[in-house]
Design a protein that fits this description.
By secondary structure, this protein is mainly α. It is built from 4 helices and no strands. The longest helix is centred in the middle third of the chain and has 23 residues.
Length: 129
């Protein structure tokens, strides 16, 4: 769970930075002709910025082991995968990296069991409760 929380906060921060770069229409992005999912770069910037902000907020909930954050984390990571797939022609290598990181986030959130992430401030071993 902690792994997924750290990864989601990193993905969120990187998406925020990517969104700001795209809104500012930085020279870093490529433009590919004849791509089926062609959108305005500024529009993609706002999408990545919004997803990044929500991802950071959800990661804070994951650090507190909230169930709502776990469910939303899977959803946000899925949306990050879709957004990065659709924006592949603008920043291809980074999009593939973000898709991979988001896949690990979904994996981390889906394999964690409830007893694995009890009270984060509880120092008593599970067998002594």
């Amino acid at each position: 769970m902690t792994f997924a929380a750290v990864m989601l906060s990193l993905v969120g921060l990187l998406a925020v930075f990517r969104g700001i770069m795209a809104i500012a229409e930085d020279e870093v992005f490529l433009t590919t002709r004849n791509y089926v999912f062609e959108f305005d770069l500024t529009g993609w910037g706002w999408v990545h910025l919004a997803l990044g902000v929500v991802a950071v907020i959800v990661s804070i909930g994951l650090f507190q082991a909230a169930t709502w954050a776990r469910v939303l984390g899977v959803g946000i990571a899925g949306l990050v995968i879709i957004a990065n797939f659709l924006s592949l022609p603008y920043y291809p290598v980074w999009s593939v990296i973000m898709i991979t990181m988001s896949g690990f986030i979904i994996w981390g959130l889906c394999v964690a069991r409830k007893e694995d992430f009890g009270d984060p401030f509880d120092t008593m071993p599970p067998g002594d409760r």
